[in-house]
Amino acid sequence: MAVRYANRMNSLKASEIREILKVTEKPEVISFAGGLPAPELFPVEEMREVASLVLAESGRQALQYATTEGFGPLRQKLADRMNRKLQTNVTADDILITSGSQQGLDFTGKVFLDEGDIVLCESPSYLGAINAFKAYGPKFVEVPTDDEGLISSELKEILEKVQPKCIYVIPDFQNPTGRSWTLKRRQEFMEIINHYEIPVIEDNPYGELNFEGEILPSLKSMDTKGLVIFLGTFSKIFCPGYRIGWVAASQEILEKYIMIKQSADLHTSSISQREIDKYLELYDIDENIAKIKEVYRKRRDLMLAEMEKEFPDNVKFTYPKGGLFTWVELPAHVDAREVLLKCVENNVAFVPGGSFYPNGGNENTFRLNYSNMQEDKIVEGIQRLGKILREVLQPLPQ
Amino acid sequence: MAVRYANRMNSLKASEIREILKVTEKPEVISFAGGLPAPELFPVEEMREVASLVLAESGRQALQYATTEGFGPLRQKLADRMNRKLQTNVTADDILITSGSQQGLDFTGKVFLDEGDIVLCESPSYLGAINAFKAYGPKFVEVPTDDEGLISSELKEILEKVQPKCIYVIPDFQNPTGRSWTLKRRQEFMEIINHYEIPVIEDNPYGELNFEGEILPSLKSMDTKGLVIFLGTFSKIFCPGYRIGWVAASQEILEKYIMIKQSADLHTSSISQREIDKYLELYDIDENIAKIKEVYRKRRDLMLAEMEKEFPDNVKFTYPKGGLFTWVELPAHVDAREVLLKCVENNVAFVPGGSFYPNGGNENTFRLNYSNMQEDKIVEGIQRLGKILREVLQPLPQ
């Protein structure tokens, strides 16, 4: 058979890391690899009640086709909540419900990117976004980052040389680094963006999971020109199983996303939307978020304390103030993929950092997740990992 | 602001018809426009029980991230059911769960089509498929059809001239025409396809809704070379609200779809998948399908009898043996869009046929749906429509 695929299929390869990480599904493996929330915090009983209510009150509508834009009352609640929590000024009409915020990323590629177009992103950036954009054949230009976020002077320099279609950023508790942008960096960023009029995709899955300090203003709240496309999701503040995310953008841009949504999957599950809407009506999601933050904060504290103790001195890592991840940098000559192979033999796992750089390199980095492992497993896992790192980095004299 | 979109956004225009049809949401309008199933047949009470059980038995897993391929037990049940009902020979590994079969259509475009590639489809064809493919910039070549299905000699002639990347067909109770392919046409089609080795997308949302006679063998059941990509869905045999569809294809092809799914939305709602799986375990979906067929058959009979009585003689229409639609052909000079405007004034609606032809033309056609209206409304609606058609086609002498 000589089936001919689209050219894009050549650039999308099944990830070797995914193959390695398949072993992490074994129960004896302590995995810091996934970006999974803690399932013991999911509001299972509440959702049983909610599911029953939604079907009793509006079963026929909930099981029928629905509008592409999403369930009206849920869009209204999301707009109100964003305005309250993130200091934005959006209406229900500015919101499109998506099947997880991953779908918002895919649509972004589809709306903006032709083959050869330039897309900017932080260096490193979320690998799911990189893969979503890759399907549309763009060139990636990586903007350097530091502990304060995306480096404004570097962005300026890049924008003097190239004309990107859009820029993708995660200002709060970034995936993979766990870092947040300072207020100053946010302000500088919006000034530059407004000057060059570049659409910004602000991906904000973790922003409400701040363990200390205030939530900083979202880029969307500073958006005076309708340039910021905000991606939100329930996956980390509630649970991922319903696959409910949203896009908030200016009317002109949102219309394009709605058109794409129509041909991509007609609409997101009407029953899932109504169930989440009912949950928001009956329960206080902020109480749920407070519980999540409490648990994750403890896990972060424990993981970082253990890393301090167990990791060799020439291993650097970030101190996230929220979110799900810390980011580790090994000495430049060490390949984290090789470390992972040793780790998997010892039933502990992480994600090597190379895949978070769309243009490659930086193989001496990796990402650790602390949200999905119980405390005793975190201690045990970091001890195993520390032992391996010490062996790799400080070999015993022969 | 000078935001620059991808070129594909130029070819995707918000449909004027969609705008006109927005008025059909008013309760006084009798709409034969949508392709909606009858909500009074949805198993609402059963799903209340199922939802509660799934959350009680496996709440944490149901609300967590899940694998891209889909929920294992559901994939197994789908493979078994396809083999039993459609005479195929597939395994759970050949199945990918999608967010409705619309997503399978979008992925088909993404997997196969580069700009300028040729895709073949029936003339006319499902407008949702046409729009999904359009986003990838192909050229459409329409293969003529008649009451027996896609015309084999026409397909042969086309394949001597062009090299399509794939061919999209709906052999059972087609949307929009309601026609089914004869067994002979299916056999001839597969011979031609096997000779030229063209991937076939067999879209089969209505195949099980046969009102009389046996279900004919699916193309997938005749597929000896792994060329047929089968798209299935629960939308018409159960309910659309969960957005659960599936792709069944050979391993080589399915791998491509899985890669695309990963970056498009990670996976389909895990809780929706588990709920449908549980329903299939506890209930006999075939009993539900039998009920649906009984109701739709009556509605079809009534609509067609009314059309015979009310429509002028120079209006032709199909006699579907199953599915949701009948297809109407007006004299060549009459524009169905103009008829629709008059209809909307009189609170009755349909979808003009032009949009079902990717290369345009055939504005003298329209599609009628009979599944979504109660019997008294069908009579009343066809009477209104008949009156307008008589006015348009047989104007009174001045």
UniProtKB/TrEMBL annotation, chains A, B:
- Aminotransferase class I/classII large domain: residues covered: 43-385
At the top level of its lineage, which domain of life is listed? Bacteria
Question: Which terms in the Gene Ontology molecular function aspect does this entry carry?
Answer: pyridoxal phosphate binding; transaminase activity
Q: Keywords assigned by UniProt?
A: Aminotransferase, Pyridoxal phosphate, Transferase
E.C. no: 2.6.1.-
Which GO biological process categories is it annotated with?
Answer: alpha-amino acid metabolic process
**Transferase listed as a keyword:** yes
**Cofactor(s) of this protein:** pyridoxal 5'-phosphate
Q: Which Pfam families match?
A: Aminotran_1_2
Q: Which Gene3D superfamilies match?
A: Aspartate Aminotransferase, domain 1 (3.90.1150.10), Type I PLP-dependent aspartate aminotransferase-like (Major domain) (3.40.640.10)
> What is the enzyme's main class?
transferase
Q: Quote the subunit structure annotation.
A: Homodimer.
Q: Family assignment?
A: Belongs to the class-I pyridoxal-phosphate-dependent aminotransferase family.
- Please identify the protein, giving its name as recorded: 2-aminoadipate transaminase
